[in-house]
Give the backbone structure.
Amino acid sequence: MSTLYNITNVLQRGTLRLFSDWKVTGVENVPPVGPLVIVSNHLSNFDPSLLSCSLPRRMNYLAKDGIFKAVTPLGRWYLRRYGAFPIDRGGADVAAFRWSLRQLQHDAALVVFPEGTRSQSAGMNPAKAGVVSLILRSGAPVLPVGITGTEHLGAFLRVVNPTGKIRVNIGQPFSLPSIEGRPPRELLESMTTDIMHRVCDLIPEEYHGYYSRERHTTGRPPSPQASP
C-alpha cells in the first residue's frame, strides 16, 4: 500500500470526522483478501476518496478520462498513484478493461461506478452493462455499496471540507453465475439490473432513481448466488 495513498486517507478521514457526520456500516462484509469488484451509486467527485477512507482495502478505480485531461501532469501522477485509471465513457475502452482485469488477476479491489457518471439528481441513472462483462471475465465476487449525503459535494475542493450527514452502507458480497461463451445482451442487462437493485437495498428510496421506477413496473429479477 503506497505511502501517498495512506497519507491522503489519513488526512481525508480527519476532514470527515471534523466537518461531517460520517458513518460506515457493514465493514465486516468486506473480504480481507482476494479479487473484488466494488459497485456503488455515484453522487459526487468525492465518492472515490470516501470509499477509500471507509473500506479496509486498498482501492483501485476507473475514473473518467476528462478528469485526467483537466489536471496538470502532477495531478495525473497523483491520480494514478492513488489508484485511478482513465476510462473513455464514449465507447468500449479496451485499455481500461485490460487494466481492470489485471488488477483483479492480482487480487486487487476495484471500484466501479456502473452509472458511468455522477447523478445530477441524487437518484441513480441507468447502469452500463460493461461492468458485468468485467465481472464475468474475471470471476471476481461483487461487493455492493450504497452512498448517501455526498450529492452536495460536487466541487473537487469540497474534499477538504466535506459537510453534512454522510453514510456508507456496505452490503454482502455475492458472485454472478458462470456463463459459457458470450452472454446475450438480455442476460447482461438482467444481471446489471440485479446488481443495481442490490445497491438500492442499501440506500433510501429517494436515491433509487431509475431503478425505483423499474421495480414498480417489472419487479426484481432473481438474485445471483451468494459468495461463500
